[in-house]
Amino acid sequence: MSAVDIDLFKPELVFFDFEAKDRAEFFQKLAVELSTRGYIKDTWLDAIVQREREYPTGLACQAMSVAIPHTDPEHLQKPYIAVIKPQHPITFEAMAHMGDDVSAELIVNLGLLAHADEQVAVLQALMGMFMDEAASREILEQTTPEGMVEVMCRRCQA
């Protein structure tokens, strides 16, 4: 999975027990976290909400359900990958509007400055990792930001 730049995973961008009652509140709270750390521009929130509406990112895998929201590079200050394990699953529409809504247990927000082809390669690499039951189990077992970064980096290189 060499398509993923593992340097983009950082402990400061791993959030556990992230509290949000729905997707809208999730994006609002994540915007605060990312803005405070200098990763996004003021346009990010509206852009990611709009993109998620048009191109939903929920993915129901066998081992866990995830969402991989992202938006266009012009809404970013610098590249990042944020990993969020919400306090309670957050409902996302199924990717490509196919199937039922997904109760995401893990959300990986991509802030990539890459071209569309590179972004697709990263999405495919992450989806492959989430479809691997052992990888999914190991990811869900993590309790520290450092542990999550280590597992995500190692699994992305596998």
Automatic annotation (TrEMBL):
<dbReference type="InterPro" id="IPR051541">
    <property type="entry name" value="PTS_SugarTrans_NitroReg"/>
</dbReference>
<dbReference type="Pfam" id="PF00359">
    <property type="entry name" value="PTS_EIIA_2"/>
</dbReference>
<dbReference type="InterPro" id="IPR016152">
    <property type="entry name" value="PTrfase/Anion_transptr"/>
</dbReference>
<protein>
    <submittedName>
        <fullName>PTS sugar transporter subunit IIA</fullName>
    </submittedName>
</protein>
<keyword id="KW-0813">Transport</keyword>
<dbReference type="InterPro" id="IPR002178">
    <property type="entry name" value="PTS_EIIA_type-2_dom"/>
</dbReference>
<feature type="domain" description="PTS EIIA type-2">
    <location>
        <begin position="7"/>
        <end position="155"/>
    </location>
</feature>
<keyword id="KW-0762">Sugar transport</keyword>
